[in-house]
Design goal:
Largest sheet of chain A: 6 strands, mixed
CATH class of chain A: Alpha Beta
Low-confidence stretches of chain A: 1-16
Oligomer: heterodimer
CATH topology of chain A: Rossmann fold
Helix content of chain A: 25-40%
Radius of gyration of chain B: 22 Å
Number of domains of chain A: 1
CATH superfamily of chain A: P-loop containing nucleotide triphosphate hydrolases
Low-confidence stretches of chain B: 1-30
Shape of chain A: globular
Radius of gyration of chain A: 17 Å
Number of strands of chain B: 2
Chain lengths: ~250, ~350
């Protein structure tokens, strides 16, 4: 299975060195500081998890990275380009995509059409043969049999798969997953974890926000811990789990 | 998931799904834009023979019908495919009519050129209105369009250059005859149908539908929501302007209360919603039902036709919210489902 996933889509060629560089990024909502002077870097092809308690600013951080929120201060570089000054659609076209915790499918469009949107609008240089790419993404995400079903008729597991497929459709070099395993358990959870592993195996940089500890431990190389909007620890999953400050949080 | 089964699906999928479907949004798109152009050609062809076949009255009815088809499709593109529920249809129709009328009166333009001016001014008005209106979403956009339409009407009523509340009359020597106006209506309706075909089937239309369904999600996939909303508004503006041009030449003399009145808006909404919003054929069906069967056939009983229109709208919204055309095309599937249920209910020997 793993071999198939890795061979289904050719690996993405990414720039050497740091793929993502976050420098002193802050984001406030009124009086609440959601993201407070956060700095970290992710190497190309690396898988990093952002963890922390509820309200720690994890999702806000991802939305700042995706361009949905503009940071109040700080800089973000992705693949050699400053992205915090770009519009959200320009960030998406630059190769950054975000899969949301609550799937955001286009309900009246079919599964294939849902995936086509990103293939047509995403990172340039990919649109040639974008349609073929769509079929590959659909089979990678195990949605090929449901390609003509309107998204409104999908059950939760397939909606999660579609959310991942759509995040993949823009051919991102950085793919961010915001608790996509939330609400899943048993074999459904294992399926989605395998799928995330397959996406990472394509050579894409992975940044995920997760609650389920098993997911974090098996998928990522490194963990960044947020609390009250600040980075309180950083390191390998086992090191971080042993850190007293993290235990406290 | 297993490797062999997924590879075979991938290989056969693109070829296996070709077929003609008028509804929904299948892929690959079975009806390319040339079908719309063909429709346009057929309509124009009918137009060339119309003078022999149709009486003056029938010609007049057909012209109005075609103008309404174009108007309903313009609103359908904006509201049905773009999700922007506009109540400003009359502003574009009125602008087109006045642009055509004034350019013929004061610049002595030939009527085909005046038509182009009408469409252009409709599009230009959409561009100007986009600046404030596209900052609004949902109900606020709707109210904004209504306010713009009413403000424009109030302004034209007081605009002495355009005749104020008495309106203007086109110069008789440059006004086309009924057959020529009918042909114009054919071309405008054909253009509207071709545009709707394009919007329904193209990649542009797919992105527009994505913006309609979930704007933030579409932006996250790299779609320019502003650009697509603007394009839908301009398309509907141009079509509204062209309809205004046709109506101006058909009526010859018009005034702002009628030409910039809410009647246009109500009709475009009613026809599209009754027929089937967000479908290709629905607005055409709706136009025939509302204009031909209700307004024209019951012309002698105006209050009755208004009552029936109201009842029809309530009935459609309550019992067939997707409109009459999806109701009709859904019948075979409905019958199939019933038959299958009955077959399942029957005990097996």
């Amino acid at each position: 299975m793993k071999a198939h996933l890795a061979s289904a889509v050719a690996p993405v060629v990414t720039a050497n060195g740091a793929e993502v560089r976050v420098e002193h990024v802050s984001k406030r909502f009124g009086g609440v500081v959601a993201v407070d002077d956060v700095s970290f870097a992710v190497a190309a092809g690396e898988a990093v998890a952002v963890i922390g308690p509820n309200g720690a600013g994890k999702s806000s951080l991802l939305k700042v990275l995706s361009g949905t929120y503009r940071p109040d201060s700080g800089r973000i570089h992705v693949a050699g380009r400053r992205t915090d000054v770009l519009s959200p659609q320009a960030v998406a076209r630059h190769g950054v995509s975000l899969a949301h915790q609550v799937p955001r499918a286009f309900p009246n469009l079919t599964v294939r059409e849902n995936v086509m949107i990103g293939a047509l609008s995403g990172r340039p240089g990919h649109r040639q043969g974008a349609i073929g790419g769509v079929e590959e993404i659909l089979s990678l995400c195990d949605l090929a049999g449901k390609a003509d079903v309107p998204a409104i008729r999908l059950r939760l597991l397939d909606l999660k798969r579609l959310e991942l497929a759509r995040a993949l459709s823009t051919n991102p070099s950085l793919i961010m997953l915001d608790e996509v395993t939330a609400g899943l358990n048993g074999s459904d959870l294992r399926d989605v974890i395998e799928l995330i592993r397959g996406i990472h195996a394509q050579g894409r940089t992975l940044l995920l926000v997760e609650h389920v500890e098993g997911v974090v431990g098996t998928l990522v190389d490194r963990v960044v811990v947020l609390d009250w909007g600040r980075v309180i620890a950083e390191g390998s999953p086992t090191d971080v789990a042993a850190d007293p400050r993290v235990r406290e949080a | 998931m297993n490797a062999t089964s997924t590879t075979t699906t991938t290989a056969t999928a693109p070829t296996a799904r070709r077929g003609v479907r008028l509804l929904g949004s299948p892929f690959p798109w079975p009806l390319p834009a040339w079908t719309g152009v063909l429709g346009l050609a057929v309509l124009a062809g009918v137009g060339t023979r119309a003078d022999v076949a149709l009486s003056r009255y029938q010609l007049d009815v057909a012209t109005t019908l075609l103008a309404f088809v174009a108007l309903a499709q313009g609103w359908n593109v904006l509201a049905g495919y773009g999700g922007q529920f506009s109540l400003g249809v009359s502003a574009f129709v009125g602008t087109g009519a006045y642009a055509a009328g004034l350019s013929q009166l004061h610049l002595s333009l030939a009527y085909p050129v005046a038509m182009v001016v009408a469409g252009g001014c409709g599009g230009l008005l959409a561009l100007v209105l986009a600046w404030p209106l596209l900052r609004l979403r949902g109900d606020y956009f709707t109210i904004g369009t209504l306010a713009a339409a009413l403000a424009l009407q109030a302004w034209v009523i007081n605009w002495s250059f355009a005749g104020g509340s008495t309106g203007i009359s086109l110069p008789l020597q440059s006004t086309p005859g009924p057959v020529a106006v009918f042909r114009l209506a054919c071309v405008v309706a054909g253009l509207a149908l071709a545009t709707t075909f394009y919007v329904a089937r193209s990649h542009f239309g797919l992105r527009l539908k994505a913006v309609r369904d979930h704007e933030a999600a579409a932006i996250g996939l790299g779609v320019s929501a502003f650009g697509h909303r603007l394009a839908a508004l301009v398309i509907s503006g141009v079509l509204g302007g062209l309809v205004g041009g046709v109506v101006a030449m058909q009526q010859v003399s018009f005034e702002p209360v009628g030409m910039l009145g809410l009647g246009w808006t109500v009709n475009a909404l009613l026809m599209t919603i009754v027929g089937g919003i967000g479908t290709l054929v629905g607005p055409v069906v709706g136009t025939v039902v509302v204009y031909y069967f209700l307004t024209k056939q019951l012309a002698g009983f105006q209050s009755l036709s208004i009552v029936i229109e109201g009842v029809l709208l309530i009935g459609v919204v309550r019992f067939a919210p997707r409109g009459l055309w999806p109701l009709i095309t859904g019948l075979p599937a409905q019958a199939n489902r019933l038959l299958r249920q009955r077959a399942r209910a029957r005990p097996r020997p």
